[in-house]
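Run log, item B.
One chain of 166 residues. Sequence copied directly from the ordering sheet:
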Amino acid sequence: MINSKIAKLATLVIAFALASTTGCSPLQTTSNDEAQVTEGKPSTTKMGVERNYEVTGKAQMKRLPGGDTGKTIVDLNVKGLHPNEKYPVHVHNLPCGEKGGGGHYQHEKGGKVDDVNEIWLTFTSDASGAGSSQAEHGHVARSDAQSIVIHDSTADKARIACIDLR
């Protein structure tokens, strides 16, 4: 009887010790095995309207947990762009209504500015001004991956459209 109580107490002590190192309570889980899908439609920014853009379409982000094999897949399909131009597109870390989407979302905050650490969806529009892109990354994007910003193809790379991912 005493050994059984000691074993239960030891189990609780271990659970609380593990919880304190993972930052969660003993009743929480450290992983979510359910896929999370967020999506949205583009809104043309004021600068985009001034430059004769009327961007429409849709975007979707799938966060697919799986331990060490988790990944993020982002799909983008838009039209209303100028034909045959290359558009830089990135996932950003704020909603469109806050600082125009904020800065680029980075897997490793403060890390390299490249298509490995950030989610880039750059594409070239077709003759009708439509474009699509898909990016797949070997990590599950955090909740601060909140929007997708389409930048102008001109040298100033102005934000011409933004998509809130909800």
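Observations after the first pass:
- Residues 31-164 form a domain with the Immunoglobulin-like fold (CATH 2.60.40.200).
- DSSP finds two helices and ten strands in the chain.
Flagged for discussion on Thursday.
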